[in-house]
């Protein structure tokens, strides 16, 4: 059975936040809201990771208030029609999960909070992101901005203090129960992927989506709630688009397939990539590129330990990757531009409640950090895209690879 964080976990997280935030301002944090998919239906709800980390609550639109020595929740009202379709919020369940005893309906709760807001100069919350993030091409959940506007409507002179840096510091170092959940997600991912790409299974597949479907079946049957992110199954030239999630291409008998997946277990993510050949005998070129990526990953792993600065680490890997690309006759001189043509992404990111978890990239790594190690080489003109990705835990002595049970072999 998968480990489940108890209320003590969430109570402890709130206590740690109080210790890091030394001010006297009330702390007010919102859950995510539902997002329209079309007509009157919504996308599957995904809770704000910080809100869940502090409460364990799965429901939308709830407000957490921590003020002096007290704490309470504000529960949104629901129409009779909505309760018929979505059910009601079970206050006893969220109290047991979060360890918060005081729970108020919306009108009473906002009267209590509002009287306090009108008397203070500051409120501590989590800063809202821009409504649209151009670099990623997506709109953000409006819940934080909605909360900020409501607070400002009660006191137009109030200053909002951002708690983000405190939560980054907290979530960057995983607690034992978090490490167990990440390990469980990784183990399920590895088993699901291994089952799906057995030689006997590979002979049956004609399309990328068939592999995706088999992996999904496998991880769900093993206990995952689903995927931590949209799975990537990309073959041939399509593997050179880093986040190719269409998974609709026809498989080529002599091509490679790049799979990037991660199961989600009790909110915690895995993130693993493997590249394999449909043909039992990959070409000499495919194997050479694969071995180069493998060497870069082993070099990266050798650098990861307490005290490592990610910016220095990434620079070292870029140089080492340049040497491999030169050996493959892809570049003549090692420059940032020449390397990034074939290796256009970072090697590592933090992993946890989000697949790209929050963390301080300018701070030295410490025991308890969990990261991916995922170099890749993408040669569009040769229809070769190869990425090998594993997940590792920084320990006092170095790094422990959490996904080492899953083989890396190309065929």
CATH architecture of the largest domain: Alpha-Beta Complex
Mean pLDDT: 95
- Main β-sheet description: 4 strands, mixed
If strands are numbered along the chain, what order do they take across the biggest sheet? 1-4-5-6
Key descriptive features of the protein:
Creatine Amidinohydrolase, 411 residues, alpha+beta, Creatine Amidinohydrolase, Chain A, domain 1, globular, four-stranded mixed beta sheet, three-stranded antiparallel beta sheet, single chain, 2 domains, 37% helix
Walk me through this protein's architecture.
With 411 residues, this protein is an alpha+beta fold. The protein has two domains: 7-170, Creatinase/prolidase N-terminal domain (Creatine Amidinohydrolase, Chain A, domain 1, 3-Layer(aba) Sandwich), CATH 3.40.350.10; 173-401, Creatine Amidinohydrolase (Alpha-Beta Complex). Helices cover 37% and strands 20% of the residues. The protein is built from 13 helices and 21 strands. It has helices at 7-20, 49-55, 80-86, 91-98, 106-117, 143-154, 164-172, 176-196, 199-202, 208-221, 284-303, 310-327, 336-342, and strands at 27-30, 36-38, 41-42, 63-67, 70-75, 102-105, 122-125, 132-133, 138-139, 159-162, 226-227, 232-235, 256-261, 263-265, 268-269, 272-277, 370-373, 376-379, 384-387, 390-395, 398-401. β8 (132-133) and β9 form a beta hairpin. α8 packs across α10, α11 packs antiparallel against α12 (310-327) and α12 (310-327) crosses α13 (336-342). The radius of gyration is 23 Å and the shape is globular. The two termini are 33 Å apart.
